[in-house]
Give the backbone structure.
Amino acid sequence: MFNDFIKHYNTIRDILRDCFLYGCFSIDDLETKRNISPRKVSYEIRRIQQYVEKKYVKVDMDGRYKLISLTYDFLRHPDNFLVNTFLTKSFTRTDLYLYFLILLYLQSKNTPCSVNTIVDELIENGNLNFENISVKTIERKLNEMSKGIGILSCNTEKRTKQYYIAPDILDLLSCDQLLELLRAIDLYKNILFPTTIGYFCTQTLQDYLKYERNHSVTVNLFNYKYVHFHPVIEEQILWEILKAIHQQRKIKLYYHTAKRPDKNSYKVLTPYKLRYDVRHGRFYLISFNNYGKCIISRLDRIESIELQKESFSREDYKKNYKERMKYTWSSVALADGKEPENIKIELLIDEVSEGYLIEKIKNEAPGGKMEKIEEGRYHYSLKVSDSGEMIPWLRSYAGNIRVLKSAELAEKLAADWKEILLSYGVV
Amino acid sequence: MELFDEVKNRYFHLLFIIINECVFGKTKDEILMIIDEGEFDQKVIGKNQHTFADLVLNSGDDNHNFNLLKQENDLFFPCIRDTGKNPLPIRFTNLEKAWLKALLSQPGIEMILSDETLAQLQTILRDIDTPIKEDYLEMTNIIQLPEISNPEIYETNFRLLLEALIQDKPIRYDNKDRKGNVHKNKLAMPVSLEYSIRDGRFRISMFSLDDNRPIMANLFTLSNLRIVNEKVPIDREAARALLFEKYSQEPIVIEVTDKKGAMERSFMCFSGMERSAKHLGNNKYELQLHYYLFEEENLIRNIISLGPYVKVTSPQRIADEIVSRVKKSLEFATR
């Protein structure tokens, strides 16, 4: 009933990601990048500016072009403001009216009520106009509120469904216990995926404390390191995949590549596991096609998921997953017929000031073997599916590390060093 | 229930608040104030040009008004009331119960929830089926720290520090630093418990009243920790504000050439920092990063890790540091 809201989260997903991650694109740039009309880009940017609190929206000018970016500082703002973009699903007046009217009515009753009782009394009291809303619509809403949302419960007596407000599961908990729970939710709401639901829980419990226990409270006890906000943009897809994995059902996955963001293709896959790269804040789906081939898909490139009727057994894929991913650094599976690569790196440190690097390396690249060769010189050996994945990590130890094995990896790294120096005009 | 659902629309929540607040009657102005606080900065306007406030207060046409409040004299009340209860119930949704069930099996949950609360919640949620399971989602690029040798100390310290934060009180403690030196009977104001998603550890961020500076400490190296009732010149909010002062005076400016996904990797890597970006043309982008001084070493490592298509253009001091490390690496590689 209001144009500012959207029916599908996908409507804003790509542009929200572009604004948040990059923030350097004008409307014209986004139009070219996403191959969509400037009008659509303008609409979505306007929506995003509505949804996100003003303090996080920054408008810069690049010549005559306006650049919208979303920015924050992890220490000052531990709450993920992008979650607000999930509070925007469109609704009709009937949706809203029936939802609240049913709740008001059932809350005022102490006994379960059938749909006919509800309708009759609401009409009698002048709350419902039968010409505008049918019994079927009310029945559908009651079903949605009990089965889908869970705010109502339903019993069947003599083949008639009786609806009532769902039992209060927090009733027996004391105020102190509820505060404990609120703190726990507050901490894990940025850690336990899908984090959006954690934020929903915080709001519900705060409302409960306020209206049922007369206790207004906000929690501000925790901070986070390495928590990215942008993965929340993919959480609707994440939730669909989690449900498919849990129900052991195959999915039809609509996907686009980095080179053709506007062109989707689809595959029917067996979703096995999700992987989350903590460093970059990226989700990957590890699935298998009908020939048993391991397929890796980035969630930010998945357009949508359709649950298929065909089911599978997770147990059948356990071994295959382990073989493919055991030595995987982040997301690259071991290629068909290939063996994991044996890597050996040499670590050169000042034992007094840099001694901590020995443990740091062992912790960041677990499963390897560290050998002390002499004072300040160590060798670390480990296996990886694809050594290309560990190059960024190796580069982060610039000045302390060199690759002894494989020669190919050593060459790649040396080439990087030369190119970096070249970019600074040093060689 | 879907994750993106209309019942979680911000305006549904706003209406929920209004109806519950109206239990004893609210004036039009009081309701308008609630709407003003809760709605978007730019008011939403329906197809018939009515605002949300018009529809809540039934001042539009009758077919479009929400009719969930009724006016009696100057006050508005819920259209169904006098039940001795709040007009609207508050319940966790199925989606939220699934998440809460997963919450109860998270590592460390027993440090926040008491045994009794945890047991009660486990009973309450025992029949809930959740798709949020550890087996379905694996974290990568994490740091696997060795197990804590004395988890009891870690847990006891966590609970004590949490209590100090809740009570907004200072602490005294002994601490053993990385070099093995023991610092006795130190006084500090805890600021927050910091959780690292990469290594799964909590650390305590606090303001040292002895050294007059913000510090970070591992929980398991603290001993003889206790909450004290001493009068200190600073509260938690003031201590937090001092932490924010540790901000760089000038940003690090980097130039990213969008080759081999360097742009995407760079922007993702720095997404948690206050930043601004510019398209320079020719496939190049400029990124200005504002950072905390205690993060500088991490930042330098991150920039180098992004490879040859990311270059620091300012400050020169950081660029020189990067060049020096890379030169050393190249010498080391070609030895």
Q: What stands out?
A: The radius of gyration of chain A is 27 Å. The mean pLDDT of chain A is 93.
